[in-house]
Amino acid sequence: MASVSLQDVHKSYAGQLVLRGVSLDLHKGEKAGLIGANGSGKTTLFKLINGIETPDIGTVTTSRGTTIGYLPQEPDLPEGATLIEAVESVFADHRALEKRLEQLSHEIAEADDDARRASLMAEYDRSRAKFETAGGYSYEVRLREVLGGLGFDPDEYHKPVAVLSGGQKCRASLARMLLADCDMLLLDEPTNHLDIDATRWLEKYLAAHDGGAVIISHDRYLLDRVVTKIIELENHGVATYPTNYTNYAEAKRIRQLNAEREYVKQQEWLTHQRDYIDRVRYAKDSAKQARGRQKYLDRMEADGKILEKPTGDRAKMNLAFKADNRGGDMVIRCEGASKGYDGVTLIRDLNFEMTRGEKVGIIGPNGVGKTTLLRMLLRQTPADAGTVRLFENLTVGYYDQEHRDLDGSLTIIEAVRQVRRGVSEAEARSFLALFLFRKDDVFKRVGTLSGGEQSRVLLARLVWTNPQVLVLDEPTNHLDIPAREALEDALTQYPGSLLMVSHDRYFLDRVAERLLVLRTRGEHELVAGNWSTYAALLAKREDAQRAEAEKLREETRRERERHAPAAPKKKSRSKYAANRIVELEAKIIAHETRMKELETLFADSAVLKDAARSKQLHEEYHGLKEELEDLNAQWEAAVETL
Question: What share of the chain in percent tops pLDDT 90?
Answer without folding.
Answer: 50
